[in-house]
Specification:
This protein is an alpha+beta fold. It is built from 10 helices and 10 strands. It is flat and about 70 Å long.
Length: 330
C-alpha cells in the first residue's frame, strides 16, 4: 500500500480524536496530546515536562518509519529510533494497521484489530478506594511514622534509650523490607525498560543500566596464557589483578583471555523530583484537614484505634510486668 494512503488514513484518525485525548510514548513513557493536524505534519504538546513544549512531527519522518516497519517482518525495534523520535510510533499506532508491542520492544504492521498508545484517561487520583496492603514494609512504616511523630528526633541526644532502641529497630526493619520490595519492583521493571532511555513517573525516573563484573580464570590458565604472550610468570605470580591489568596493557591479549566476564542488568534511580513529592504530601495534609462531618469523625475513630494498636505493639514492658502477683498487693 502506498504511504500516501496510509498517511491520510492516519490524518483522519487524528482529526477524529477527542480534544483531551492523551497518548504515551513507548520508551520514555512521556504523555502528550495532539494540538493541531496539518497536511504535512502533526503538532504535539508534552504534558509531563516543566515547561510548555510543543513539537511538529513531520510527514517525511512518518514515511521513513513506515518504510522501516514494512521492511521488517518481525517488527521494527524501537531501540533503533533516533533520539527524541519516541512520539512517532505512538502517533502511528493510531493507524488501524500498526501496533506497538512494548513487551517485545517493537512496532509492527498487523492484519486485524490493533491497540494504540492512547490512554483511556488521566491517572486516577481518587483515594477513596484505598486498601491496606499485606506487606511487611507497610506495617513497619506505620510503626516508624508513629515513632517519628511521638519523639523529637531532631534532638536524638535527648531521647530515652528505650525509645532510641525502638526507633533503630524500626528503621532497620523498614530498610530491609523496602530493599526486598525494591528488588521485586526492579525485576518487573527490567522487562519493561528498553536500552538506556529513562522512563518517568510522577516522582522521578529510572533507566536500564548494564553492570559489568569480571573475575580471573583459573590461576594456571592465566599464567600459561600470559607466558604464551611473552609475559614472565614471575611478573604476575599470585595472579594479582593489578599486575594482570598491567600485563594486558603491553600485549595484544583481550580481557576475555584471562577474565571470566559476566554482565548483569539492573535498574538505578536516575533522578528524584523532590518538589513534586512535597506538593503531593502537602495535598494529602490539606485533604485530611478539610475533612468534615460524619466522615471526619469516622476517620478520627479509625486513627485512634490504629494508634491504640500501635501503642500496644511498641510499648516497652519490663520482664517484671509479666510476673506481678495476682493474689493481692505484695
Amino acid at each position: 500500500m502506498p504511504f500516501g494512503v496510509s498517511w491520510h488514513t492516519l490524518l483522519d484518525e487524528l482529526d477524529d480524536l477527542p480534544e483531551e485525548s492523551t497518548l504515551i510514548t513507548p520508551l520514555s513513557n512521556d504523555r502528550f496530546r495532539i494540538t493541531d493536524v496539518q497536511e504535512q505534519r502533526a503538532i504535539i504538546e508534552f504534558l509531563d515536562r516543566d515547561i510548555d513544549e510543543t513539537r511538529p512531527l513531520q510527514r517525511d519522518q512518518f514515511e521513513t518509519l513506515y518504510r522501516r516497519i514494512t521492511d521488517e517482518p518481525d517488527g521494527f525495534e524501537l531501540d533503533r529510533l533516533p533520539p527524541d523520535a519516541d512520539p512517532y510510533p505512538a502517533v502511528l499506532s493510531l493507524h488501524p494497521r500498526f501496533e506497538v508491542d512494548e513487551d517485545r520492544g517493537v512496532i509492527t504492521e498487523k492484519e486485524g484489530p490493533t491497540t494504540s498508545q492512547l490512554l483511556d484517561g488521566e491517572p486516577e487520583t481518587d483515594t477513596d478506594d484505598r486498601t491496606e496492603p499485606d506487606l511487611d514494609v507497610y506495617a513497619d512504616t506505620l510503626l516508624l511514622i508513629d515513632a517519628l511523630e511521638r519523639h523529637e528526633v531532631t534532638t536524638l541526644e535527648e531521647m530515652e534509650t528505650d525509645a532510641l532502641v525502638n526507633l533503630y529497630t524500626l528503621l532497620s526493619d523498614v530498610q530491609r523490607d523496602a530493599n526486598d520490595l525494591r528488588q521485586d519492583v526492579a525485576d518487573v521493571l527490567l522487562s519493561r525498560l528498553h536500552h538506556d532511555r529513562p522512563v518517568s513517573g510522577p516522582f522521578g525516573s529510572v533507566q536500564r543500566t548494564t553492570r559489568r563484573n569480571r573475575s580471573l580464570k583459573d590461576d594456571e590458565e592465566v599464567l600459561e596464557t600470559l607466558e604464551d604472550a611473552g609475559i614472565d610468570r614471575e611478573r604476575v605470580l599470585g595472579v594479582d589483578r593489578d599486575k594482570v591489568d598491567d600485563a594486558l596493557d603491553v600485549t595484544e591479549l583481550s580481557e576475555s583471555d584471562v577474565y571470566d566476564i559476566k554482565e548483569s542488568e539492573y535498574v538505578r534511580k536516575a533522578e528524584v523530583d523532590e518538589e513534586r513529592k512535597e506538593t503531593r504530601l502537602q495535598g494529602l495534609k490539606d485533604q485530611l484537614a478539610a475533612t468534615e462531618g460524619d466522615e471526619a469523625e469516622e476517620l478520627r475513630e479509625e486513627i485512634e484505634e490504629l494508634e491504640g494498636r500501635i501503642e500496644e505493639l511498641t510499648e516497652f514492658k519490663s520482664g517484671a510486668s509479666f510476673h506481678t502477683p495476682t493474689g493481692g498487693e505484695s
